[in-house]
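In the current project phase, the collection of sequences with tokenised folds has grown. One resulting record follows, to show the layout:
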Amino acid sequence: MQLTHILVALMATVPFASALTRAKANEYKDSHCKTWNYGHNSFFLGDTTMADNTHSVYLTRGDNLQNARKNGPWLAFASKGVICEGEQLGELPDGCVNLDTHFKKRIRCLRPQFPK
């Protein structure tokens, strides 16, 4: 009987879990998101520094597990350290973003915005 309850509970969560998407910030060596460099994706993705040889990044917002709402747009920063530092350049759209030309300064770090 207990095994049945566990199986039913697991099956009930599958449709909900499959509908959620993880935030992504996948790095590419070229400026058009074609030549793979590094991948970052997680439900808990935070500040993400860009490698010096990365020239574009493919972004998706993903879902927030705490309140099942879409995360806000990514924020771009001009400096990187352990966390995003320095001047905040602005918000970024989902999709392919050129790190060198999207803003006047190169994007070196990304931070997701979480819904309140």
Remarks:
- The longest helix spans residues 2-19.
- The mean pLDDT is 85.
- The longest strand covers residues 72-80.
